[in-house]
Amino acid sequence: MSNVPPTPSGLRGAVDLSSLVDRAQRPAGAPSSVAAGGQPAGGQPAGAPAAGGAPAAGGADAGAELTVPALVLDVTDQTFQDVLELSTVVPVIVDIWAEWCGPCKQLSPILEQLTAEYDGRVLLAKVDADTNPQLVQAFQAQSIPTVAALIGGRPLGLFVGALPEAQVRDVYEQVIAAAEQNGVSGRVTVGGSVPGEGAEPGEPEPQPLPPHHQAAYDAIEQGDYATAIQEYKTAIAQDPHDQMAVAGLAQVSLLDRLSARTADEIRGAAAAGPQDVEAQLAVADLDISGGHVEDAFGRLLDLVPTVFGAERESVRVRLVEFFELIGGDDPRVVAARRRLASVLY
């Protein structure tokens, strides 16, 4: 999955997923999680066979059919076992999101639209990060949105952050292909009807995004990051307290910077110039995109005392942007803010 930042793919924590993890590490032929610039995610290599060469968990017959209440399911800590069982029939995309998260509001409509388009060949499980801490811990969701997949009960990390529709569509294609290779090629219908025709009557329409947010979302969908950046800046100028716009600006700025060079180019420049501020900022972007939050913070915090003037300010600004991406309540952000303040003041 080209230019897709990975999420940590191990599933463990308060939710009882021990049997899931013990059965297999990764399905055979599954798409690898790839960091921005093409770096593979940690864990078992892509395409490695499942433990013992076991078939997909649950042993669902290829082409099986199942009736579900909806193609998009709200999943909780208590109902997650049902999703594991559904993933033996069709692959399940897992979207970990929150109401206050700007990038989540950009990504969720894309996931829901694509899920409907695939006509019952895939399900979308939405997990509210604020009310389901066990699943957040189990998926090791260090930032949101975090997107993963379940294939035959097996976890597969996909990406972190809002991506354009074309890239998300590519992820869906690879997940479905991996599922078919593992015998998970069934189909679901909604309440016994044709998928997509089973929406509950009276279901409230999603609230529209504010105009500049919608314009930014449309621009991101087209890969036009410069326009998206400008739209978010306009929204912030109109309302400096618009946290959704602040978070969205940080996210799309990161995507814009990472789109300019490959990961190999970025890491090569950083290795060649340990005191080159721009090179170190770029590799910190790469760290953040790959979920290596503490590495990114440590790299820039170590750099702050060695630079002055405009260079120090550029490092400070980038750290503040990272803090917006990760979230102010995250303990890593709290610790990094404290260390930054001690260095600066």
Give me a quick take on this structure:
This protein is α/β, with parallel strands linked by helices and 345 residues long.
Main beta sheet, described?
A: 5 strands, mixed
Structural class: alpha/beta
Strand order of the largest sheet: 4-6-5-7-8
Count of DSSP H/I helices: 13
Helix proportion range: 40-55%
Low-confidence runs: 1-62, 192-203
Approximate strand percentage: 5-15%
Number of strands: 9
Shape: elongated
Elements, N to C (H/E): HEEEEHEHEHEEHEHHHHHHHH
Mean pLDDT: 76
Separation of the first and last Cα atoms:
43 Å
Word description of this protein:
With 345 residues, the chain is of the alpha/beta class. It contains 13 helices and nine strands. A five-stranded mixed β-sheet has the order 4-6-5-7-8, with helices on both faces. Helix 3 crosses helix 5 (165-181), helix 6 (211-221) packs antiparallel against helix 7 and helix 7 runs antiparallel to helix 8. It is elongated, with a radius of gyration of 21 Å. The relative contact order is 0.14. The model is unreliable at 1-62 and 192-203 (pLDDT under 50).
